[in-house]
Amino acid sequence: MTSLYGLTPKQLSEVAESLGWPRFTGTQLTQWLYQPPFAEIQDMSNISKARRELLLSMFTLGRLSPKDSRVSRDGTRKYLFESPEDSAVFESVSIPDQQRHTLCLSSQSGCKRGCTFCMTARLGAGRNLSVGEILSQYQSIPEHAQISNIVFMGMGEPLDNLDNTVAALEILTKVCGLSTRRITVSTIGILPKLEQFLDATTVRLALSLHSPFPRERETFLPTEKLHPARDILALLRDRREDKRRRITIEYIPFAGLNDSPKHAHELVKILKGLMVRVNLIPWNAIPGTTLQSSDPRRVEAFRAELERGGVPATIRVSRGPDIEAACGMLAGERTPS
After folding, report:
1. Cα dihedral sign, 112-113-116-117
2. φ, ψ for residue 280, nearest 5 deg
3. C or N: which end of the chain has fewer Cβ atoms within 10 Å?
4. Domains of the chain, residue spans
5. Each residue's pLDDT tens digit, 33-58
6. pTM: predicted TM-score of the whole model, two decimal places
7. What's the Rg (C-alpha) of the chain?
8. Taking the domain 68-323, which CATH number applies?
9. Is 250 an active-site residue?
10. Are the CB atoms for 19 and 53 separated by under 8 Å?
11. Which pLDDT score, from 0 to 100, does residue 171 have?
């Protein structure tokens, strides 16, 4: 049966109308599904018993609960979800901080893009997550009410699941009440899906770059060959309607590969004309690769060089590496028994 959870307000109103009910029943369903107190179908008290019974005969609720969780020494918590239909697994990461509480969501189970520094890429293509599977990562965790920021930086490439990502963003912002300024979607940049995404939503954007030189970037992100970073940056530069959209450039410095002053100078050059901030991300080691994280002093020198060139830059603090919850480490693994 079809799940109600994950349907947009418009789709829920269409369900109501298809059953001969008034459209406001769709609004009632929307509130029960996405606003506290969340309810099972049989507990939706302002919908008549006869209508609830009909819904139960045609739909399941469809909200998933975590199958497993792990807690890091730094307070980060990683949740594992599993689809009851095909056993696909995916993870989200809850990151408490003094001033904010960030939730990192997945958009896919696996990823086909083959980035050499990412554990999720080792899983292969997997599949797209449904809207309900994306939203379950947010609304079914115990600390749901404390979440202040959401980042689509977990498993998968959000633009490869564009329709479901946009639908989830619509519900998060228009129904759940999260500000678009507190949601960021991270992508390696897939043209023309990036333009479609920018047209469909006003949330913040993070672009994974990792090298200013095309051939070198291609060794980290094979998609560079099909979707060059320079074309992506040109698109962002030319979109006047996005002048107020916050854009972050994600950059992992690898020892001896992309952390030199030459790289910093070229990065300043290719980012000219863009209102961006560079986020320097410590690499979290994964097995089976010769990559090494850049020395912290070298990363700081790289940051200072960007700042001298007029590009604001920050160094991210890695959270949850001891439970494989940090950036690039998600692989949908259960806690060892």
Report:
1. negative
2. -85, 120
3. C
4. 2-60, 68-323
5. 999 989 999 999 999 999 999 999 99
6. 0.96
7. 21
8. 3.20.20.70
9. no
10. no
11. 98
Q: Is 288 left (phi over 0), alpha (psi -120 to 50) or beta?
A: left
Name 204's bridge partners: 184
Collect contacts of 52-55 with beta carbons under 8 A, ≥24 apart: 54/19, 55/4
Candidates 104, 115, 176, 327; catalytic one = 327
Q: Give the SS3 label for residue 202.
A: coil
Lookup: tokens for 16: 């109501």
* Helices and strands (DSSP H and E) totals, the chain: 10, 14
Residue 138 CB partners (closer than 8 Å, separation 6+): 92, 103, 105, 144, 147, 150, 172, 176
Separation between Cα atoms, residue 251 and residue 213, nearest integer Å: 13
- Letter for the amino acid at 115? C
Cα angle value 125/318/193 (rounded, 5°): 35
Mean pLDDT of 165-187: 97
pLDDT of residue 180: 96
Residue 248 is inside which H or E element, if any? strand 247-251
Tokens 């609720």 sit on residue: 61
d(CA 118, CA 138): 23
Q: How far apart are CA 100 and CA 335, in angstroms?
A: 27
Overall fold of domain 2-60: DNA polymerase; domain 1 (1.10.150)
Active-site annotation holder among 91, 157, 305, 324:
91
87 to 83, 126, 173: CA distances (angstroms):
5, 11, 29
* Alpha carbon distances (Å) from 43 to 40, 60, 63, 144, 283: 5, 13, 15, 21, 47
Residue 91 annotated to the active site: yes
The DSSP code for 150 is E
30 neighbors 9 (Cβ within 8 angstroms): yes
Give the C-alpha separation, 81 to 62, whole Å: 13
